[in-house]
Amino acid sequence: MKLVRMKPGHGDVLLAEGDPAVSEDEERLIAEFRRQLELGMWAAVPTFEGTRREATMVRDFDEVPKDAERVVFFPPAAGG
Amino acid sequence: MSLFLAASIIVLAVLAIVGFAPSVAERVRRLIPRRETRERIPAYDPGRERRAEARARALLRSVVSADEYAMYLELGFIAVNGKEGDGGYGYLLYPHRPIVAFDVPTGELLNEYCVGFPDRSEPSTSQRLPDADDVLAKWMSLRAGERELISAANMHVPGRQLDPEQVARDLIRLREWRARRVQAAA
């Protein structure tokens, strides 16, 4: 699983990568996940519904599907 | 005698502190390297935004469908269907422009939703995501929680920021583009 974040002037940046089934990796992924949420980021997991591309917003690492390849962090929406 | 000497030394010491302390303190201050108080502004790099957009496009490509990615490259926006109600409406997702809701059967423009994703988490020279990232953020937010995104946006009647005639032309371009894709696939 990769945790990536959209950043101004950079595109996406890899924050952490690991296998959630391995406890050391899981701890690292959870720590980074929480850090991003504390920074106010939104987290979305790209998913498939059949052949359709979808996305799910997650607010806790437990909500991330076990087979998710990526969690994408991005700044929260603000009225313009 | 010794009392007089001690008193003299103390008086001299106090006078020395009063007289020389400011200049000594200033010299010490000069010797200690100053901490950078101003935020570092990165050097101008004309290729930076271009590289950022290339990375953002790669991420967009890996998340949305092939049709949607081609739509972004060729038309400059992504059209998605709404999920609420009977779903007879859709949205046009432009980079760094309002989301436009439209009626799918008639092409009538319904609303503009002004929303952005400014990155205020770190002091930076820019809070603006690359174009493809902005479109992807809108796409993911809409697919995952249409109502939440729309409630975060400021809603206006069509024409507030985007020229309705331009949007109407974009809807025609979209229809023609889709027809060409169907023809090419047949």
If you had to describe this structure to a student in words, what would you say it looks like?
The complex is a heterodimer of chains A (80) and B (186). The N and C termini of chain A lie far apart (33 Å). Chain A is of the alpha+beta class. Chain A is globular and about 40 Å long. The longest helix of chain A is centred in the middle third of the chain and has 16 residues, at 23-38. Chain A has one helix at 23-38, and strands spanning 2-7, 11-17, 42-49, 52-58, 70-74, 78-79. Chain A has a 5-stranded mixed beta sheet with strand order 2-1-5-3-4. Chain A contains 1 helix and 6 strands; from the N terminus they run ββαββββ. In chain A, strand 1 and strand 2 (11-17) form a beta hairpin. Chain B is α+β, with helices and mostly antiparallel strands and 186 residues long. Chain B is 54% helix and 13% strand. In chain B, strand 1 and strand 2 (89-93) form a beta hairpin. The longest helix of chain B is centred in the first third of the chain and has 30 residues, at 2-31. The mean pLDDT of chain B is 87. The interface between A and B is large, with 28 and 45 residues. Strand 6 of chain A pairs antiparallel with strand 4 of chain B.
